[in-house]
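FORM 12-B: Structure-to-Sequence Request
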């Protein structure tokens, strides 16, 4: 390992070991259970996919420390906040109201479908212990059912966002400023696939009769994603435009040749297309094209410090901005994206590409600690300069996981099966 890379590995290891407990919060206010927060401007806020990915990092960094109550508490706090419809908020702020607090009669996006995945990760970490979850499991199932009832597009078999509010990848141009209920996001559908797989596994551990039902739903969704989101022309997974007029057999104008397509590809290169690799949805031939034509392409996603959140080829949209409402996902490098793409590469055996991405990620965060003493929320893809929210820890702690791979020269896939 190069000397500068060794130095960055050591800086990350020391920083994470010394600071990860800053993410911990004890019960108070709306936090009924201990939990994990991102830090910086979100220092007293519990967030949906942030807490899940942060927990994956903490599981590696907190070796020897018993952090089970914080891991379980993230899931239990969200389940405790579920309303009668099954909705769970995206965010919980302990001591004040949040714009994400759920109000009756409103139609809003809710917690991203990663709660079952988080619960399964916690359970498997403790020898498949699910007793802490048993009493709240009906609320978790109702949460998944809410998505099926309110965000499922029957014609394609895909899920859609209600609007562009708090979609995780905030200003993804496939959703941002688009009409309501018009986008079957590749990000959302990959997450939902993982959620259904995790729900089936939790049912198995809990001896719940719905195991087969969730397994079947996950397979159906996988086929729908492959059918509607894979674009063979470009060799990439895209979001799908589902805002099409319904086929009316009695309408004269189109009666001679009604549409036979269910959706249209939204050919905008967003990093979340690579989640089809992370979740094992893509075929090996598809992954070969995604890696060779897009991930390694310096004119698209390949940047000196990792994976651009939007392809640089999207010249009308691509931008590096310091923004927090929305956070900027149209160019900057994000630590969670680097990590998830790296894991996807390992899943399909692209070891050299995974190692290269891990080295870029360690260099990115090691330089930030060396210069600023802390992490930032997201980064300039060309210079590695932190752009916003110094002190943000959250999923950036996953840099520790990648540093550990480099130290141990361990490139065996160990993620979701």
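FORM 12-B RESPONSE
SEQUENCE OUT:
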């Amino acid at each position: 390992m190069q000397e500068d890379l060794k130095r960055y590995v050591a800086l990350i290891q020391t920083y994470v070991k010394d600071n990860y407990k800053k993410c911990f919060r004890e019960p108070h206010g709306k936090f009924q259970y201990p939990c994990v927060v991102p830090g910086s401007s979100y220092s007293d806020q519990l967030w949906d996919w942030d807490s899940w990915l942060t927990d994956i990092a903490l599981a590696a960094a907190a070796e020897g420390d018993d952090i089970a109550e914080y891991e379980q508490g993230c899931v239990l706090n969200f389940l405790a906040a579920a309303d009668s419809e099954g909705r769970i908020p995206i965010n919980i702020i302990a001591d004040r109201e949040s714009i994400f607090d759920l109000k009756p009669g409103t139609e809003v996006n809710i917690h991203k479908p990663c709660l079952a995945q988080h619960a399964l990760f916690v359970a498997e970490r403790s020898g498949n212990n699910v007793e802490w979850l048993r009493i709240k499991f009906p609320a978790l199932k109702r949460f998944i059912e809410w998505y099926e009832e309110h965000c499922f597009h029957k014609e394609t078999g895909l899920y859609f966002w209600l609007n562009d509010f708090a979609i995780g990848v905030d200003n993804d141009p496939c959703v941002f400023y688009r009409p309501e209920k018009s986008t079957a996001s590749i990000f959302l559908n990959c997450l939902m696939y993982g959620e259904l797989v995790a729900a089936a596994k939790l049912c198995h551990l809990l001896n719940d009769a719905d195991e087969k039902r969730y397994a079947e739903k996950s397979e159906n969704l996988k086929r729908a994603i492959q059918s509607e989101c894979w674009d063979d022309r470009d060799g990439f997974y895209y979001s799908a435009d589902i805002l099409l007029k319904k086929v009316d057999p009695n309408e004269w104008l189109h009666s001679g040749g009604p549409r036979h397509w269910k959706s249209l590809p939204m050919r905008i290169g967003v990093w979340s297309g690579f989640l089809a690799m992370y979740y094992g949805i893509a075929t090996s031939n598809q992954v070969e094209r995604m890696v060779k034509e897009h991930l390694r392409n310096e004119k698209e996603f390949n940047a000196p410090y990792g994976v651009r959140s939007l392809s640089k080829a999207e010249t009308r949209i691509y931008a590096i901005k310091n923004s927090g409402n929305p956070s900027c996902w149209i160019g900057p490098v994000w630590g969670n994206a680097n990590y998830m793409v790296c894991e996807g590469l390992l899943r399909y055996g692209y070891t050299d590409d995974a190692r290269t991405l891990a080295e870029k990620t360690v260099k990115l965060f090691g330089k930030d600690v060396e210069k600023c003493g802390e992490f930032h929320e997201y980064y300039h893809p060309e210079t590695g300069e932190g752009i916003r929210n110094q002190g943000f820890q959250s999923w950036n702690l996953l840099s520790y996981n990648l540093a550990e791979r480099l130290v141990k020269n361990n490139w065996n896939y160990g993620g979701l099966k």
